Amino acid sequence: MFSSIANSLESLKVLFNLVSRYLLFTGSFYLFFYVWKNKKYWMAKIQQRYPERKHIFNEIKHSAITILIFGLIVLMVIWAGKNGLTQAYEPINKYGYFYYFLSIVLMIVLHDTYFYWTHRAMHWKPLFKWVHKTHHLSVNPTPFAAYAFHPLEAVIEVGIIPLIAFTIPHHPSAITIFSLYSLLLNVTGHLGYELFPKGFAEHWLFKWHNTSTHHNMHHRLVKCNYGLYFNFWDRLMKTNHPHYEAHFNEVVERRQQGKTPSVSPEAVLE
């Protein structure tokens, strides 16, 4: 009896954490940019129009299903960890703080690679039609699109967690930090506003980091810009849109000038 209660409480805790994180990140960014400061930051809006309300509701609906699926997979990983089946360890000083932070970097690099190739695979026509098309219903995405997946895509997306858990020695808090960072990058990638300065996408160092414009172009144009955190795989595999840097700079110029430029940023892509 007590075991069942404990398991139920564990399940509720995991679900609560997933829901609260999603609402905190997506809700705060949406309220700030789309409600509170919408006029101030309007010129930073990549696509100069707001998404329809029905699309926003659709993003939230699919995200709710995704969170339930994420919760189920995470609970399975937790169970495996309690039974000594994962690479989890405690305390932190077992491997030291250098490895602790290194493990987070390894998770991010692994996830970036995992995301790029699973993402490209889901653009294979049969998979796109039945799995990935749901996410691309958000042509003009908002932060709520971060988790707006078909159930099968949700399983693929959360697959990085068991992959990490079973292959990389990790402290549980390291996975938590990784997950929060991943959610932050996911939300800002779907923000719909460009906040980085002009030249960022062409800078010798910063060009390797992705921007909101980069992923926004993917939602609009579909067959380009597949990366998540970094721009390494897109550059290596030549899947960046050829006008990515130009589009980025046009959007930033519009934001800095505070007025619509003579050439529309979206015209660059036509």
UniProtKB/TrEMBL annotation:
<keyword id="KW-1133">Transmembrane helix</keyword>
<dbReference type="InterPro" id="IPR006694">
    <property type="entry name" value="Fatty_acid_hydroxylase"/>
</dbReference>
<protein>
    <submittedName>
        <fullName>Fatty acid hydroxylase superfamily protein</fullName>
    </submittedName>
</protein>
<dbReference type="GO" id="GO:0016491">
    <property type="term" value="F:oxidoreductase activity"/>
</dbReference>
<dbReference type="GO" id="GO:0008610">
    <property type="term" value="P:lipid biosynthetic process"/>
</dbReference>
<keyword id="KW-0472">Membrane</keyword>
<dbReference type="GO" id="GO:0016020">
    <property type="term" value="C:membrane"/>
</dbReference>
<dbReference type="InterPro" id="IPR050307">
    <property type="entry name" value="Sterol_Desaturase_Related"/>
</dbReference>
<dbReference type="GO" id="GO:0005506">
    <property type="term" value="F:iron ion binding"/>
</dbReference>
<dbReference type="Pfam" id="PF04116">
    <property type="entry name" value="FA_hydroxylase"/>
</dbReference>
<keyword id="KW-0812">Transmembrane</keyword>
